[in-house]
Each structure stands twice: as C-alpha cells, then as structure tokens.
Amino acid sequence: MNKLTNNQKRLRPHTPQRLMKVVITAFILLGLCIAASLVLGARLVSWDELVTGLSYRELDSYGASVVRERVPRTIFGLCCGAALGISGALMQAVTRNPIADPSILGVNTGAALFVVAGIAFVDISSASQYIWFALAGAMLTAIFVYGIGSMGRAGATPLKLVLAGTATSAALSSLISAIMIPRSYVMDQFRFWQVGSVGAANWNAIQTFLPFLVVGIIIAIMVAPSLNALALGDDVAKGQGVRTGTIRITAAFAGVILCGVTTALAGPIGFIGLLATHVIRLMLGPDLRLIIPLSAITGAVILTLSDVTGRLLTSPGELEAGVVTAFIGAPILIYLATRMKVRSL
C-alpha cells in the first residue's frame, strides 16, 4: 500500500498556474522561433519584407521572395521537431529509461542503414521511398535493441537498453560505411542527408510527412493515460485494466513511425527527444498527458532554433541543424547519465 501511495505521488497534479505559465511560455518561444526562422539567415529580412512575403501579394522585393522560400523550411522544421519530441517521450515511457532517445537507442542509425542500402542496391530516390525503407529499418532496429536489452534475469533495464542501443548503433554505422565507401555515388547522395538537415525542405516533403505525423500524434495522445498507469508498475496497471503488452507495442510503434519518417526526410537528427522531454518533465512532472503535447512544442522550438543558429554561425554558409543539436545534446546527455545514474522512470 505504501508503494502504491509513493508511486501515485509521482503523478500528483501540478498547479494550474504553473501549467498555464509553461504553456504560454512555450507558445511565445515557438512564435519567436518561427519569426527568427523566416527573418534570419544569410539574407536578413525586414519587417515590411516579412509581411509582404507572407501575404503572397505580387512579388516586389528580393526579401519577400526569401521569406517565401523559408516558409516550407520553417514548417518542415517544426514538424520534424514535434515528431522527434513525441518520439522521445514515448520511448522513455515504454523503456522506463530517462535517457532513451531515438538516436541513443540506435533507431536513427537503423533507419539510415536501410536508406543507404536502398540507395545502393534498389536505386531509391524519392521521399516516399526513403520513408518506407527508413520505417523498416527503424522498426527492425527497435525490436533488435529491445530484444538484446531484455536478455538476462533482470530483463530490459535502462542501462542494458542504452548499452544495447549504443553497440547496435556503432555496428550499423560500420555497415553504412562499408556500403558507401566502394560506391561514390551513394556517398554523394547520402553525405548531406546523414548530418541531419531541414534545409532541403519543400512542400512535397511536408505533404508526404504530415499523414504520418498526424497518425503518430493521435496514437501518442490515446496511449498517454495508459502509459501513466504503466509508470506505477505493471501490476498496478493491470489492476486498472491496462493491457500492458498492447500499450507498449502501440506506443513503441508510434514512436518508431515518428522517428523513422523524420529520419527519412531530414536525416538522423539526434537528441531532440531527450532534450524536449526532460525540459517538460523538469517543469511539470511525469504526467504524459502533458509531456507528449508540450514535448512536441518544445521539440519544434529546439530544432527550429538549432536550424537558425546553424545559419547564423557560418553565414553566408550553413551549419546543419543535426550538428548543432548534437553539439548541445551530447554534454547534456553526459550530465544526465552521471546525475541520474540511468535509473528507471
């Protein structure tokens, strides 16, 4: 009884005032990041040019055309960041691992391997083809990592999952190199995609991405209450009528879809899910009904901000967003691993 009481305290309600402050702050930051993405870059855009560009009136300035070119990039970055934020929240909940992330568990690398293999052996080239190959690779890698991490008496502990994911990612990265090195055309096609970027976004990519994003978000929202029950332990969850196995598979499926599709279209961008989820959990606690939607907003903010930062740091060139997120995320991962000692959620 005491254990149940202690576990239930983890999901105690936060104050409405605090929630409101977090939500308002998140949307303000999102708006500022959208504005920065449209205005900042190799060519700075004035307010008048921004308004003209967004109004889609007759083109009367170069700045307005720059704004219009940046609109799909901005929307695509928001979608990718939201997808990775939700994916990270789902994977942390399913594995009960506070540092679980698609990049850490090897899912990104599995998706990348299948895309490279598709380019090399099947000659794929379109966004839709990339998506299906990436999804297959992400799902198989997730199953493999969870299977390896579940071996032994203790089952799938957080530490074992991280180790399995890291080892799998290293092995798959070697396979990627083995496929690319003898094939220069594959390397040329893959090298810019590999670092993770939203710079090549267009409306076709957004239209291809949106159905998968909507499905993933719907599934994530539907399973959130059941995942909260799982956080109290399998016995408690079963006592509340939760089918633990089905919920884990469904949540993992949604997380893999969101990660796989993002990786297919933008490359293996890492650490977004880790950063976004921890920021929200730190402010509002572990309630996944709040973590999932707010991680989507936070992930969109982080990726958009990283994209803008990459543009400004090397202007008039660009530093890819995946490089910026890795530069920020790696030390934070080290800090979390040392402070939290990879304990389960």
Shape: globular
Structural class: mainly alpha
Give the CATH H-level superfamily: ABC transporter involved in vitamin B12 uptake, BtuC
CATH-derived topology: ABC transporter involved in vitamin B12 uptake, BtuC
CATH class: Mainly Alpha
Largest β sheet strand count, sense and barrel closure:
none
The CATH architecture term is Orthogonal Bundle
Tally the structural domains: 1
Q: What fraction of the residues are assigned to beta strands by DSSP?
A: under 5%
List unreliable stretches of 5+ residues: 1-9
Would you mind describing this structure in some detail?
The structure is a single chain. With 345 residues, the protein is an all-alpha fold. 77% of the residues lie in helices and 0% in strands. It has 14 helices and no strands. The longest helix has 34 residues, at 62-95.
Features:
disordered N terminus; ABC transporter involved in vitamin B12 uptake, BtuC; 345 residues; membrane
Give a quick summary of the entry:
It is found in: Cell membrane. The chain has 345 residues and is mainly α.
Topology diagram in text:
Elements: H1 2-9, H2 16-39, H3 47-55, H4 62-95, H5 107-122, H6 127-149, H7 158-180, H8 184-194, H9 203-231, H10 234-239, H11 244-266, H12 272-284, H13 288-313, H14 321-340
Helix pairs in contact: 2-4, 2-13, 3-4, 4-9, 4-11, 4-12, 4-13, 5-6, 5-7, 5-8, 5-11, 6-7, 6-11, 9-11, 9-13, 12-13, 13-14
